[in-house]
Amino acid sequence: MSLLHWFNKQKRALARAERQERDGQYDAAVQSFLRAEAPGDAARVLLLRADAEQKVEQRLAHYARAAAVDVDGDHGQLAKKRSTALRFDLANAAGGIGLDAELRRIASELEACEHWDKAAAAYRLLGDAAGEVRALKGAGDIEALEQKLEADQSQAREIRERGALLKRLRDLEQLAERHAAICAARSWLEGEHRDAASKHDEEVSGLLHRIRSGLITAPVVTLEVEGARRHYVIGEEVTVGRTRSDIVIASNAISRQHLRVFRIDGEPHVEDLDTRNGTMLSGARLASAIPVGDRLSLTLAGQIPCTIERDECGVMIDVAGTKHIASLGPLVVGSWRLSDAHDGEDHFVCLSTPADRPPPFKNDLALRRRIELAVGDAFSEKRGGPIVLSVPQQETIA
Fold first, then answer.
1. Nearest to 232, CA basis, from 305, 330, 341
2. b/e map of 133-162 (b: 16 or more CB within 10 Å)?
3. Does residue 249 sit in the same domain as residue 316?
4. Which of 6, 155, 252, 273 is most buried by its number of CB atoms within 10 A?
5. Are 217 and 348 contacting, i.e. CB atoms less than 8 angstroms apart?
């Protein structure tokens, strides 16, 4: 075949391809451009087909074919760039979930074809800080790069702070300094500089909940003192009644707050709280506060027996067979004092040690002189000594 004949044949094929393109015969036009050895034009038509295609799968197919027929040409490179960008948009819409390998290939292809903004976004979705910085440098986006580096530094600082916080919380819990741990955890979760994710930090929130839920609350607590388990009422005074009282008695005959036990000049006294059915002593109704002395036998509302007698820890109150030890002030256990500590609406039991006595020991570890009690605690007065005070699972007193 002569050169002139070949040239005329190519010219006719090219003219036929252009005519087919004008007539909208795009598939035929692509084939004619390829026969005319014009891969760039074939790729251009395929790009037009892709841009007009509604179905994503077909659009990707046209991009792939355009890139294949014009590998080194401008239209082929453009097709590859658009295909990669579309694949990224699809992965981004899915949040990148389960697509790490595909997303990494897309990010690399975006970077190779200098589609810097989407490459940076892809690396960001992957959590690849180095890749994101590299893409931002390629884009020359100095402002975004500075913001990224600042955010990374802030994130790294927060990670370090969070790690230090978790260690401190566990140390404070180990040392029974629960109030300090609670305050530190709350401060972290409620900090104004925290983002939404930090404010819902599951590990810190879980540790805070565990510490708080383990604390025993006043006034009624169950303790084991030198192996003897008893129910204690901690506070300056004790009320007995049907509801809203320290010792609750399930009887409709009893007033909501029926009886009060307290101290006058250091001596335990008892008084009826102006109740409808009254409090009886030897058949006579109490009209005012009277001293407990060594022992009092009362009848509440004419039917509920109540005995109050002195105890080394304060007084023992026996109502219908259920016994409570009321300290009527700080509860003294060995060299320690147990009292009511407020935290908002909650009342926790706090153990304190005088300055002239050694602090309590837990698991042979010396604690601070003021700690909050929690279920599972067991204290001795010296390292390796016998357990003096322990806190069992709290019981519901009916």
1. 330
2. bbbbeebebeebbeebeeeeeeeeebeeee
3. yes
4. 273
5. yes
C-alpha distances out from residue 1 to 6, 8, 12, Å: 7, 11, 16
| CB hemisphere CA count around 135 (13 angstroms) | 25
Rg, the chain, Cα only: 41
Please, which residues have CB within 8 angstroms of residue 267's CB and are 6 or more apart in sequence? 291, 292
* 314 in the same domain as 243: yes
| Domain boundaries, position 272 | 236-326
| C-alpha closest to that of 170 among 201, 208, 202 | 208
Cross-sheet strand order for the sheet of 331-333: 331-333, 336-343, 346-352, 370-372
Here the CATH number for the domain that contains residue 283 is 2.60.200.20
Q: Is residue 87 part of a domain?
A: no
Domain endpoint, select from 287, 311, 326: 326
Query: In the chain, what is the greatest distance between 2 CA atoms, to the nearest angstrom?
Result: 139
In-domain check, residue 365: no
- Burial of residue 205, with CB atoms counted within 10 A of its CB: 0-12 exposed, 13-18 middle, 19 or more buried: middle
Q: Are 263 and 202 contained in the same domain?
A: no
* pLDDT score at 88: 73
End-to-end Cα spacing for the chain: 111
Supply 215's token pair.
């604390």
Convert the pLDDT of each residue in 141-200 to its tens digit: 666 666 666 666 666 677 788 888 999 999 999 888 898 999 999 988 887 555 545 556
To the nearest 10 degrees (0 to 180), the angle between helices 26-35 and 3-22 is 160
Angle between helices 74-93 and 100-112 (to 10 degrees): 150
Residue 249 has what DSSP assignment? -
**Partners of 322 in the beta sheet?**
319
Distance of CA 56 to the CA centre of its chain: 40
**pLDDT average, residue stretch 237-255:** 93
Question: Quick count: other Cβ atoms within 10 Å of Cβ 280?
Answer: 18
Going across the sheet that includes 220-225, the strands are 284-285, 279-281, 295-300, 304-311, 314-319, 322-326, 228-233, 220-225, 387-390, 378-380, 361-362, 365-366
What's the domain count of the chain? 2
Q: DSSP letter at 374?
A: B
Enter the tokens of residue 396.
């519901």
pTM above 0.85, yes or no: no
Q: How many CB atoms lie within 10 A of CB 58?
A: 13
**3-class state of residue 337 by DSSP:** strand
In the block, residue with structure tokens 């002593």: 281
